[in-house]
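User: I'm curious whether this sequence folds into something compact or stays loose and floppy. Could you predict its structure so I can see for myself?
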Amino acid sequence: MRPDVEAMKADIEQSIALLRRRLDWEPALRKLDELNARVEDPTLWDKPEEAQAVMRERQRIQGQVDAVRQMETGLEEGVMLSEMADEEGDEAALEDARTQLRAIKDRAARAELEALLSGEADGNDAYLEVNSGAGGTESNDWASMLLRMYTRWANAHGYEVEFQEETPGEQAGIKSATVLIKGPNAYGWLKSESGVHRLVRISPYDSSARRHTSFASVGVSPLVDDTIEIEINPADVRTDTYRSSGAGGQHVNKTDSAVRLTHIPTNTVVACQMGRSQHQNREEAWRMLRARLYELELQKREAAAQALADAKTDIGWGHQIRSYVLQPYQMVKDLRTEVETSDTQGVLDGDLDAFMGAALAQRVGATRGETVE
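Assistant: Here's the prediction. I'll summarize afterward.
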């Protein structure tokens, strides 16, 4: 076996072994057998809500088990193909085997991270909100860069992005924006991005070409589906309607239909202006409010999330979770996990998996590498 193929084989085997441990393999198989037996019981559907919960749990575990088995089968086939190609001196077939093994290696690495997404709402869609900090045009421009970064990350992973609200800056960028990111495990991947993000660069808006520091905050909340009950007293919510704002273009529908909801007990404010009618915006705003209040409840349950809530109290010095330095050197560094990279353009173009993976692993006490080459 060629050395590079042998190295890939060893890496994949290590990843599969780690994935089995994280999935708690044998208990997971027993649990799957139990769930399969329950699904075959015709009386299960006498309680539809319980039946749906069983089906979701069965689908989740079955997907994880199938993924591991497919990787094991693919590894065996890839190694066999490489050995045959090596014996016959068929370089084209050997390269095909390498390509197959690289794909399995990438799949195994992502499956490792997805195994950490075991939170109550990790599988849900997510609302992502960006707000500029103090600093006027500089911070507004930075907020728009962050919004672009997350939009590109979502698109690269096959997620759908729906704009819910966008308030433009006076000269450039945005003051705030909210998008709904739809896809499997969207909230699980994005939840660690909540906090303050700091940018250091030579300002394109400064005629003296001085270095500026800007701040913007990111907040992430899970879309609350029908299986999660969130009770909101309508008397606690103030409703305001107003004309949709913005400079126009693809994201802004300028009508007298925008809706803002304020949950008075928690001072939680959400707004939606992207629908074509006030009814649509009101309905979406209520979904957003339920998501925000649910996220507040999740924060109360998790000690780690309390630090996150503290970090969101001020968009400025001492509260940032990640620094993006473009001048005088190139570096993006996460201040929680110590993960860093000099590929600043790649990160701003949406290459965030290393940061998200490290944050996920940290939440469950796992160990990841600290530096991204």
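Summary: The radius of gyration is 24 Å. The chain has a mean pLDDT of 84.
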